[in-house]
Amino acid sequence: MSWISKTFSSSIGRKIIMAITGLFLCSFLVVHLIGNLQLFKDDGGQAFNVYSHFMGTNPLIRTVEWVLVLGFGFHIYESIVLTQRNKTARGGNYVSNHAEQNSPWQSRNMGLLGTIILIFLLVHLYNFFYRARFGELDPDINNNDDLYTLVATSFKQLWYVILYVAAQIALGYHLIHGFRSAFQTLGLNHRKYTPAIKFVGYAFSVIVSAGFAAMPLYFYFFK
Amino acid sequence: MAGSNPNAKPMNLTLKVWRQKNRNADGQIVDYQVKDISPEMSFLEMLDVLNEDLLRRGDDPVAFDHDCREGICGSCNLFINGRAHGPEAGTTTCQLHMRKFSDGDTITIEPWRANAFPVNKDLSVDRSAFDRIIQAGGYVSVNTGGVPDGNEIPIPKDIADRAFEAATCIACGACVAACKNASAMLFVSAKVSQLALLPQGQVERKTRVENMVAQMDKEGFGACSNIGSCAAECPVGISLENIAILNREFLSAKATSNNLA
Amino acid sequence: MILDSKIPEGPIAEKWEKHKFNVKLVNPANKRKYDIIVVGTGLAGASAAASLAELGYNVKAFTFHDSPRRAHSIAAQGGINAAKNYQNDGDSIFRLFYDTVKGGDYRAREANVYRLAQVSVNIIDQCVAQGVPFAREYGGLLANRSFGGAQVSRTFYARGQTGQQLLLGAYSALSRQVAYGKVKLYTRTEMLDVVVIDGKARGIITRNLITGEIQQHSAHAVVLATGGYGNVFYLSTNAKYSNATAAWRAHKKGALFANPCFTQIHPTCIPVSGDYQSKLTLMSESLRNDGRVWVPKEKATAERLRKGEIRVSDIAEEDRDYFLERKYPAFGNLVPRDVASRNAKMMCDEGRGVGSSGLAVFLDFADAIKRNGADWVSQKYGNLFDMYAKITGENPYEQPMRIYPAVHYTMGGLWVDYNLQTTVPGLYATGECNFSDHGANRLGASALMQGLADGYFVIPYTIGDYLAQTPPTPVTTQHPAFAEAEAEVRARIQQLLSINGTRTPDDFHKQLGQIMWEYCGMARNAEGLRHAKQEIQKLRQAFWSDLKLVGTSEELNQALEKAGRVADFLELGELMVDDALDRNESCGGHFREEYQTPEGEALRDDDNYAYVAAWQYTGDNQPEVLIKEDLQFENVKLTQRSYK
């Protein structure tokens, strides 16, 4: 094994991949959230469709898309490998364990939160991404694919809204731990800056998840 | 006056204790009653009472590790009511006193659980994995004699203090026991940080962290997921900052060392 | 038998240098042909094992702990002395030597103590190089504090955990040699006998505490670094597993035991709270730098305090007796340990003790907190204060600590010559296990110094002298002496398991402790000692006929381990009493009530008792034979110790 594969198959190496891909996915969330704010524009979805057309056709974006796929792929793959390894390391379970007294719930349940997010992601990709990219959508007045209408009708279904909101709550908790944790894993812990990282991480988690959750709620209640 | 309170009311308790004959046997929880336990007793003194009672009755006493009973040797290691070293923060099992419990309480006592810490018997586990991690590099390679005068290596007080704080780890293993992942990174990071902070540790800085982490993985400990249980349960307050330092040291060593293996 | 201490000729300051030149050397290529067994991995054992392995010898290191780092050296709090004179306050090698001989009440061997003071400076350098995080001044240089029995500041420290940091230093050096394959480490392995062949130590018999397996180990030399025997008293500041078995087995195989009655009672320990008490906890002597020791002036006040009718704060300043400051104005609260302990006992005997039992005095930090603030006190003694609070449930920042003396250290031990060799050739004893350097009383911060001096800087030279005169042919366990020793060990274990009586090992141990504390503790007299001797004999008989054990020897059986150790304590305890009875004088930790000055100070008899009392084992239940090594004082004038 070369030193590179050895480094990244070690316990710390795998954590570093988790951290780097995690932060990369955070940056994706920011872009995705900002873009999707077009949904709130009261223009019958024209701006949003322009944006989604751009995202679906721009060669640079299409390239980065593959990087994103890799980011998700590595993040998920490493999480599975680490979870397996950690389960084996733990061995048996305690008869009585009060971990809630020494650590936050979300920190101990990143795998569960991640799985919820993954299930959501598959539904989300099938419903919007797959149908936008590979399906047949009606054109809007600018002759762009009318993804907006698909979104608007989807978010009129109660089960769909519930799934979205629940997934965003999971994402929020996932981020509360993940954001701060990524910095720790990369060794960026300093008594001067860590409190700020913690605060930013918390704010980031709340804003991102609330921002995404606002979309289905907006359509369900106000459209 | 507390601490010598003659009026402290004795307690009767139910103990649920993990009994396991040896490394390969299956274990189980066995219930015991202990009576007239003084709140001034230490937790281990309460177990002494149980063991004396068992022995007199011809039953096998409960095996558990302990020695100094001053919170410094790191021998004692009980998982009490779902917590490493019991309910009181910053305390080893031997320094936990019965005044933290109430009459009629049921107390569950288990050994540390981790694949890298096999059970010897009952509550005693094998922590030699920690020794092997230190043997992999937790030292400065100087032979006896031929070293410079102590004052020829000035060390800023704050650095010396931080190195000291990392060096106070007692290797009890509570970090591993409390961690969902049975990760030993708090233990490893304490030694790595201590020596990375000090000028004496610079010469072997890169090889040390590479070798210690490799050994840690080889022993079958889990990977840190920054939960924080370890630091919360650490009886001597080793900080999570050390794990960040370990990660940093590891990354920079891997990136810059001449070791191609 | 005539004891030859092998002290080199010449002026005291040159003895060690000359000796190092005169000892025979083993050539580097031959070193790997020699095997050395080191039993115990505390400061003395770990440092010896590491240093010997570095030289090229094959070392086997044994500890009954699960890791070398658990040895009780780890619990030493206050610090380590060294004659560095970094503080420019008049310290020197001679002064450290002088203070140590005087502190030991002139019952230590001058040459050994001088060597100890000489190598003390190397220890600090060695530990710093290992990365031991000693306390530092703001300029980055090493900090010092003062300790009892000295008027200079020469104690190096790492907050209240100096022993821990030094042990971890030695442990790291040992670990490095384990990694190199030069040390083979046996953990959870207890030594149960020495194997002597043709009068020379050639190996040991051990028991694996997890599997119960009995093993034979051979070597060209055996080093015992197995600590002291303070646990004879049951209640002491020693760790629960600390025991005398290795030293006692060696004694029974021919090694003389020196000054067994010299036990140190440490003045600042947390008082006993009940009969369930399993051990006593020491609060570092360094606390006496800033804490003031006092009891109420009036017996009546103390009585009301004990009953809870008044509180500490109700006692006015003028009604407090700072008895150490009053009686010893020059040293005040920093008098040596034996003096501080005895005075605390006197106060309690007068009925002025505090705490519900009346067996405690106050150690008060109110002045220090007023002078420098609670933060300053916390920075200096934080961990000790926390420990006190955890154990007693009281906050020492708000009310004075209660302290009482407790057995802490044993100055006596296996008799060794200048080379640290016992009377069995090839068998060495280092650290607290030997008797050599502290006389009748050890000064604070000197135990760590001695353990590391022996291990790092003495034994590596002196053992070579012996090995150079031993052929480098392999020593194996083929000799029938090994099988014989193993059979004895097995028989003894079976005997313990087969008694099937009614009393537990702890039960016997507690009773022995009570006898020892009552009659051979802080104050002793001939009548009490004679009584104690009978009591111990009776108890020993009861032990061998009424001991209760369960299980087998082929498993982890902690009660069985304990029983073996108690059996040895029951023999050693009697020897301590014999020794105390023989020494018709008071000196250091040995206070015979019949021999005291009108002010109640220890009264030595230098004309008749300036000797090391070395005892020879002659058979089970036979009186031991006393062999004297006369002490010569050429550099220190014998005076009545005065700390006034």
TrEMBL record, chain A:
It comes from Hymenobacter metallicola. CDD domains: SQR_TypeB_2_TM. This is Succinate dehydrogenase cytochrome b subunit. Keywords: Membrane, Transmembrane, Transmembrane helix. The keyword Chloroplast does not apply. One of its GO terms (cellular component) is membrane. The chain crosses the membrane at residues 16-40, 60-77, 110-129, 158-179, 199-221.
From TrEMBL, chain C:
GO terms for biological process: anaerobic respiration. It comes from the Bacteria. Its main location: membrane. Residues 509-643 form the Fumarate reductase/succinate dehydrogenase flavoprotein-like C-terminal domain. It is found in: Cell membrane. Residues 35-448 form the FAD-dependent oxidoreductase 2 FAD-binding domain. It is a peripheral membrane protein. One of its GO terms (cellular component) is plasma membrane. It catalyses: a quinone + succinate = fumarate + a quinol. Gene3D superfamilies: FAD/NAD(P)-binding domain, Fumarate reductase/succinate dehydrogenase flavoprotein-like, C-terminal domain, Succinate dehydrogenase/fumarate reductase flavoprotein, catalytic domain. Its EC number is 1.3.5.1. The active site is at residue 337. Keywords: Cell membrane, Electron transport, FAD, Flavoprotein, Membrane, Oxidoreductase, Transport. GO terms for molecular function: electron transfer activity; flavin adenine dinucleotide binding; succinate dehydrogenase (quinone) activity. Belongs to the FAD-dependent oxidoreductase 2 family. FRD/SDH subfamily. PANTHER family: SUCCINATE DEHYDROGENASE 2 FLAVOPROTEIN SUBUNIT, SUCCINATE DEHYDROGENASE FLAVOPROTEIN SUBUNIT. This is succinate dehydrogenase. It comes from Hymenobacter metallicola.
